[in-house]
Amino acid sequence: MGPLVEPVTSAERLPPQADVVIVGGGIIGTSAAFSLAQRGVNVALCEKGHIAGEQSSRNWGWCRRMGRDPRELPLSVVALRLWNEMHQLVGEDVGFRPAGILYTCDDDAAVGRRETWLKLAGDYALDTRMVAGAELERLLPGSTRKFRAALYTPSDGRAEPQKAAPAIARAAARRGATILTQCAVRGIETAAGRVSAVVTEKGRIACGSVVIAGGIWSRLLCQAQGLRLPQLAVRASVMRTAPVEGGPETAAWTPHFAFRKRLDGGYTVADGSANRYDIVPASFRYLADFFPVLKLEWKHLELRFGGRFFEEWGFSRRRSPGEISAFEKVRVMDPAPVAHQLEHARRALEQTFPVFKGVAIAQQWAGLIDALPDTVPVISPVDKLPGLFLATGFSGHGFGIGPGVGHLVADLVTGTKPVVDPSPFRYARLIDGTRPNPYTGV
pTM of this prediction? Predict the structure, then answer.
């Protein structure tokens, strides 16, 4: 079972009309709803389960600029600014603390990769720097390992995934947005060649624009519209500990484990590198798209064939808007955590930081990351269908850049000058023969 997420009260009635309908109540959808509502746009958000029920509450909680793909850096700067203002913006504490993040280096090769990123980041590096020696030991008190060095960003931070998207959704509702939970979107209607409405399990909402921000479910909704979206799902496992006295304040990544402190005094912990990929029918359809990134990440992925193949086979069947959809059959995707990956991370953490020895593991869970072939999201209008916008494929980066994405989505939908250049995130790159270019710097 996933972590306990703060509740959000659903609107009692389905609105007959909205300017914009957002599909998906994770960090991306709620941030977009909030940004649109701030601008006075009549927006409705439809979530098939509960707000932040899937990956938006199951991630590490890191809010970082450091180590980003250079294409994401401008947007991550916007996001960090918004995270720093979030308490004031939404009127609630979402747990954001600029406690810093470290990427440790065991050898000169790792140091070289981090230094290369610093050069690529240029002015976007801001306060990021390499640290070593006594300064690194101070940032990682109690460590039994002497790391060669680390890339360090003091202004990067952490927030609480179980609090953030719900707080943003509640703030959006206070500004006039309609937040609908247990309300799956079954399909999108068109008229005169553009979006005209969404059909939900509770009825129809007329609208001029639709934003698909459904995480791993976005591909199915696009498929129903005849749109090709080469998106697959990667299973990432996480655990949280009971409170720990004397642990590090700064979040850190190593090849074997990663951690960050929580508001409750415990720690969120994961394997630093390993994830599992469950083979599904779409794996074969998009094999050529993902081949470049598979070559890069092969040693970090566990491939498995099992029940998810047949589950997704059933999801892919075309249904009429009057039928119960796959989105209703699975209100919250709740995959089992990969136990041996978490045990590996726990052992490595205890060996490096003895303060964690014997600390109880309070909970373990897994989530599915929506991944694209070049590991860069699509945040874009769809030229083929005016009024349709996509915000998906965040490849494990969505929580940290979520507030910035919401701002950019609102810009695109309203025709405002974009807060950053949106061209790296265009949908067309996924269907026009552009060769996927996954970032290899870190």
Answer: 0.96
